Amino acid sequence: MQRIVHILIFSLITLLSCTSDNDDTISQANATFNFSHNWDASAVTNTDFNTIQYTNANGEQLSITKLRYLISSITFQKSDGEIFILDGYNLVDVTNNTNLSFTPITTIPTGSYSKVSFTFGFNNDANYNGNYSDLNSTSWSVPAMLGGGYHFMQLEGKFIDNTTTETGYAYHTIRAVDNSGTTQEFEDTFFEVDLGAVTITNNAVFEIDMNIAEWFKNPNAWDLNVLNNTLMPNFNAQILMFENGQNVFSLNTINQ
Hints:
This protein has about 260 residues and is mostly beta strands. The protein has one domain (about 30-255). The chain is built from three helices and 18 strands. Strands 6, 7, 8, 11, 12, 13 and 16 form a seven-stranded antiparallel beta sheet that branches. Strands 2, 3, 9, 17 and 18 form a five-stranded mixed beta sheet that branches. It is globular. The two termini are about 45 Å apart. It comes from Flavivirga jejuensis. This is Copper-binding protein MbnP-like domain-containing protein. Pfam families: MbnP.
C-alpha cells in the first residue's frame, strides 16, 4: 500500500511539473509598445506642459503645450527575410495621457528576429484621407491643398523670441509638399525606426523613449525665430524635420 502511495505522489508531481513547463512555453506572443518621453534625459509628461523650462540647441527657451504623433507598421523581420507586420496604428497623445501603450491584436511567433521596427507616421499606401474614422475625428487630417492624408506629429508650445516676447510655435510634420509649380511635388518624410535584433521567448513589452530635444537639434539646430509657424506648407522645413527625426526614438528595454 505504501508503495502505491509513493507512486501516486511521484506521478502527481511529474504531472504538475509538466503542466508548469507548458504554461511557460508559448509559440505565439503579444508585443506591447510603451512610449515615454524626455528632454535630454529629463522625463517629460503632460504634467510638465505649459511651463517654459526647456532650452533647445539654438539657445531658445520654450514650453510644450501639445504633443501627439502617429506610429504604424510595426514589423518583425527574421534573418531569412520572413516578415511579420502587425495590424493597426497608434496615435500617441501625450497631452491627454492616452495611447502611451499599444498592444496590436496580431501576435507573432516566438523566436529570433534580426530587426524590429515601426514607421513614424503612415507610409504612402496608408496615408489617405477617409481611411480612419478615429483619426478624422481628432483633427489629424491634412488639407487637400497640402496633399491630403494625415499628420505624422503635432508638437506645439511657446518660446521666448529674440525680442523677449512669448511666442507660439507649431512644429507639425506631414508628407513634404511643394506647391510652387504648376503641379504638386511630394517627398516622403515618414521614416522607419529600427529597434534592432531581438529574441522573443514570451509576451514582450518594448519600452520606447522619445527625446523631444532631438527634434530641435540634430543634424539641424532649429531656429524658432525663423521657423515657428506655417511649417506644414513649407517644403524645406518638412525635410529638415524629417532629418532631425532620425535620432529621436530609442529602445530602452524589452521585458519578457
